[in-house]
Amino acid sequence: MTGNKDQKKTQEKELSGLRKLAKRRWFYPALYLCAASLVLTGVLLFQMHGADKANQDQDQTVFNQDKATPHVQNAGDEVFEWPAKKGVTEVIQPFYDPKATEADQQAALVNYNNSYVQNTGINIGADDEKAFTVTAAMTGTVTEATKDSTLGYKVTLKHKNGVETMYQSLGSIDVAKGQEVAQGEKIGTAGNEALNKAMGVHLHFEIRKNDVPVNPEHFMDKSASDVKAVTVGAKAANESNPASEVKDEGSSEAPKQESDQGKSKSNTKSNPKEGSSIDNSSLDSEN
């Protein structure tokens, strides 16, 4: 019983002290300030937590988008692709290289109207010697899509850095001037040309830098920016015996393509003058 009395006395003293404290003027203002501080602190903590969560969700969304979105290749990232189906087509006459051996240079010469001209591209044929689909080696804009009485149908695509690809000796075309063509898209079908009927069905393919031809085989799997300017010597060699010297009798326009002397492989169509020696002096005199 004594313990209960002591406990009651203690409680009464505490209540009495609180009553005295509450009677003081500064008590209630201080109490209000404490309560307001607690409420304000709670609001700030809640807002900070919500902002952190929102930022975390946003970061997670951006991360997931970056992870899920595939890289879209543009024309600047592209590299030249073979302009026909691989495995069933091959080079049947090479590009004329002034630095090549005499035998390789002769294989790249074209006999047209009793004159020899240099092949400014490569001629591609199918293993079965039949027509095949021709595709864009690189994304570009069609700047020319015409039919020439000497070269057959021809298409020119413009790329960046002054680079063009040319497709000639086509039997038909599927594009028009001004059209944007994606890499690998069908341009037409390989055919024949009056310039070189003996070659049969083939594609004459060129890569040009500022209208100067370069060897297409050197730039497969490389970008347009990799096509460097041709040396002065190569330009001079090209200008000394250009395909433009071969005139189309039915047209005033000079075809850029060199005619095909014959297939470079031993089991292909033979050159009418195959086996004969052709030196540069005879070429200059004939041209």
TrEMBL record:
The chain crosses the membrane at residues 26-46. Residues 264-287 have a biased composition (Polar residues). Residues 119-216 form the M23ase beta-sheet core domain. Pfam families: Peptidase_M23 (PF01551). Residues 233-287 are annotated as: Disordered. Gene3D superfamilies: Glucose Permease (Domain IIA). SUPFAM superfamilies: Duplicated hybrid motif (SSF51261). Residues 245-263 have a biased composition (Basic and acidic residues). One of its GO terms (molecular function) is metalloendopeptidase activity. Keywords: Membrane, Transmembrane, Transmembrane helix. This is M23 family peptidase. It comes from Sporolactobacillus terrae.
